[in-house]
Write a structure and sequence with these properties.
Layout lengths: L2 E4 L34 H13 L2 E5 L6 H14 L9 E5 L9 H9 L9 H9 L4 E6 L5 H14 L3 E7 L9 E4 L11 H13 L10 H13 L4 H9 L6 H18 L5 H15 L3 H10 L8 H8 L6 H13 L4 E5 L3 E5 L2 H14 L2 H22 L5 H10 L1 H14 L1 H10 L1 H5 L4 H14 L4 H18 L2 H18 L2 H16 L4 H8 L1 H7 L6 H16 L3 H18 L3 H16 L3 H17 L3 H17 L3 H18 L7 H18 L1 H12 L5
Parallel strand pairs: 1-6, 2-5, 2-6, 3-4, 4-5
Antiparallel strand pairs: 7-8
Length: about 700
């Protein structure tokens, strides 16, 4: 049965902007609050109580009423309070940019730090991982995928007794046990209302000159009337407050009044609050310059955040030249139509709130440009994917990792569009993003895109060969080695038809790794070793050549030929250093550490594996981090530090759980991990080992 709490806004909150609660010590990913928070004391108190006793709370209300901002303030307050926060953190999952419900589970999993590398479905893997977790998860903006959210939340709440879910949506999920809280507009009654306080805050943020409107009683009364006219809807108040940069409060009141009277004459079927917000947005739209309205419409194609370069490429054309886009974008930011944020390691990003973007999408359709702008968006991000593919093995690798992670939602949207409109371009883009799927943890998602693209595009040409190889690489990480080998054979045939040595080497890596992982290093060496590589020809420092050298060096370790492994891995590392590449260089360090361990050089092994972990953390490679921690544990156990080895094994256990397949099912990896445990137990005893191991499992994995 659904509990329902219509929020009474009669209790007034503080009229100044509240300071942001400090939740820095709590695990999680809560976004910063982008503006001061006004009012809502009653709602915050109610949510604080519900979050302590209910497992599923849903904030409902019209668009622009402040559901997301209230949810963020509530969970930040909880995280910063003195009472114990959820042990495993407070996590914010932004669903607004997500278009495909099939990607919901992958989005949640990746946000929580789970990079599934198993053959289980993402739902199964996420439920298994969450089973013993104690955390609070916010699913923000669910209304466009309510059935998928209902299913996933229901599954998670059944399997994870320590989970609490807070959702924001315009319509309830209708899950068993759901507690509904209706978020209503801010109160507008009285000279000191929350609505007036918010209007004042946003007006003063736009211009200090707006202070005059809130010091004179007569003008304050006009401002209060504006708030009443806007029904206390926060987004409408913010849009109006931004207008005080150019107009007086009296001018705003007059123009708003005319707009509402015009709407009343049309007999709009919308509910009053929907009508008010729609009117306020439409009013803001009408007051924009023609080029601002055009850019607003075109920007609505972006799913989530975007940068200036993308806005120029996608939104210019006709009366809006590329050189003018930045100036017009700045004007829309000043009017609160577009939000601007700084993202560490990436730079300035822009985004639009859902309700404002929806208005822009309607206008874009009216202009007849929806298909053309979507095409430009998709092809811009397809070109970006190609550029990233070319740059991945170079000195800009870390920058590409950060940028493509920031652009993840846009890349998804572009691929979805191309799959429906240009299958060949979709195939090229999905294959070019191999590093995002293979190296950055999006294994299931990448596999799904690649398989869809391979089914619909022409089965010939370089793009087809690349996609076959990328699909096989994804299968390797999911543990589907038989299928990886099949893709390897198909990729080999495609490369032979093209007479392309680089693609032949990539296919050889696939086949060799598919043999190596289940325990056939000799067979792998025949396919990837120096003689086989020389027979193919091609560049030694291309992705295919480097990956084959990696497989070769590890196969040599498995065969106990450690001196040869050191020579092969050292050469691989030198090539990566020359290129400025970090991802494969870290794996070269890993093999050097394995070889050093095999030669009894435990200190040397620890030095190499620490270098490897440094590189893997730079690129968020959870699989690599789990591998490295197992190896470091074996090295320090060999040095006699059993307690540290046990803690490292506990931490590696936690990291492997985020990957989904401990030691990837590889016998040699399992044997290495078990040897570290044996030495650690022998050094400190079983009881001390278990205590240190448990402590390691509780260390952060984010």
């Amino acid at each position: 049965m659904h509990g329902e709490y219509p929020v009474n806004n009669g209790q007034q909150g503080p009229k100044g902007g509240a300071l942001e609660p400090d939740s820095a010590d709590v695990p999680g990913n809560l976004p910063p609050e982008t503006a001061t928070f006004v009012g809502r004391e009653h709602e915050l108190g109610l949510l604080g109580s519900l979050l302590r006793g209910q497992r599923l709370i849903t904030l409902t209300g019209v668009g622009g009423v402040g559901k997301s901002r209230l949810a963020l303030r509530a969970v930040r307050t909880l995280a910063a309070s003195r009472r114990p926060a959820p042990r495993d953190g407070v996590w914010w999952v932004e669903l607004s940019p997500l278009r495909d419900p099939e990607l919901l589970t992958s989005t949640v999993a990746h946000t929580l730090g789970l990079a599934v590398h198993s053959s289980l479905s993402p739902d199964e893997e996420l439920c298994s991982w969450m089973a013993d977790k104690e955390l609070l998860m916010v699913l923000d903006t669910c209304e466009h995928m309510v059935p998928a959210a209902r299913h996933l939340v229901g599954e998670l709440l059944q399997t994870a007794p320590g989970l609490t879910v807070l959702t924001t949506t315009r319509e309830p999920l209708r899950c068993p046990g759901e507690t509904l809280v209706e978020v209503r507009p801010l109160p507008t009654d009285g000279p000191d209302s929350d609505a007036l306080a918010l209007f004042r805050e946003r007006a003063l943020a736009a211009t200090p000159l707006a202070a005059e409107a809130f010091t004179d009683p007569g003008r304050t009364a006009v401002a209060a009337e504006v708030c009443r006219r806007l029904d206390g809807i926060p987004l409408a108040l913010e849009l109006a407050g931004a207008r005080l940069r150019l107009w007086s409060v009296e001018q705003i009141a007059v123009r708003l009044g005319a707009r509402f009277e015009l709407l009343a004459d049309t007999g709009s079927p919308l509910l009053p609050r929907h009508q008010t917000l729609r009117t306020a947005i439409g009013w803001s739209h009408e007051l924009c310059e023609p080029l601002e309205r055009l850019l607003w419409a075109r920007l609505s194609v972006f799913a989530g955040g975007f940068d200036l370069a993308a806005a120029r490429a996608v939104c210019s054309g006709g009366p809006l030249p590329a050189a003018r886009v930045e100036k017009v974008l700045t004007a829309l930011t000043a009017k609160s139509v577009v939000l601007r944020t700084a993202v560490a390691g990436v730079g300035t990003r822009y985004r639009m709130l859902d309700t404002i973007r929806e208005y822009g999408q309607d206008w874009l359709t009216e202009l007849g440009e929806a298909d053309a702008v979507a095409d430009r968006h998709a092809h811009w991000y397809a070109q970006l994917a190609q550029a990233a593919d070319r740059g991945w093995l170079g000195s800009g690798q870390v920058d590409w990792y950060r940028r493509m992670t920031a652009e993840h939602m846009q890349l998804r949207a572009a691929l979805e569009h191309l799959l429906g409109t240009d299958p060949q371009a979709a195939l090229e883009m999905a294959g070019a993003l191999w590093f995002l799927w293979f190296s950055c943890g999006h294994v299931h998602e990448g596999g799904a895109f690649l398989e869809r693209a391979l089914r619909t595009a022409r089965p010939t040409g370089p793009a087809y060969a690349q996609a076959l190889w990328a699909a096989g690489a994804v299968c390797l990480l999911r543990g589907d080695l038989a299928r990886a080998g099949e893709y390897g054979e198909r990729a080999t045939a495609a490369a032979a038809r093209l007479a392309d040595p680089e693609r032949e080497l990539r296919a050889a890596y696939l086949k060799g790794a598919a043999l190596l992982m289940p325990g056939d290093p000799g067979g792998s060496l025949e396919i990837t070793g120096p003689a086989a590589r020389a027979a193919h020809g091609g560049r030694a420092d291309g992705a295919g050549g480097l990956l084959c050298r990696l497989a070769t060096s590890y196969a040599l370790c498995d065969l106990g030929r450690f001196e040869e492994a050191v020579e092969e891995a050292a050469g691989l590392r030198e090539s990566c250093v020359r290129l400025g590449e970090r991802w494969m260089r870290a794996y070269a360090d890993y093999v050097l550490a394995v070889a050093a361990l095999g030669l009894g050089q435990h200190g040397e092994a620890a030095r190499h594996v620490r270098a490897m972990l440094s590189g893997k953390r730079l690129l968020g490679d959870r699989f690599g981090i789990a591998l490295g921690l197992d190896l470091l544990a074996a090295a320090v156990a060999g040095l006699g530090d059993g307690e540290l080895a046990a803690r490292l094994l506990g931490n590696s256990h936690a990291w492997w759980r985020t990957v989904g397949r401990p030691q990837m099912g590889a016998p040699s990896l399992a044997a290495l991990r078990d040897e570290g445990e044996r030495r650690a137990r022998a050094s400190i005893g079983d009881e001390a080992y278990e205590a240190a191991f448990l402590g390691g499992t509780q260390a952060p994995t984010g």
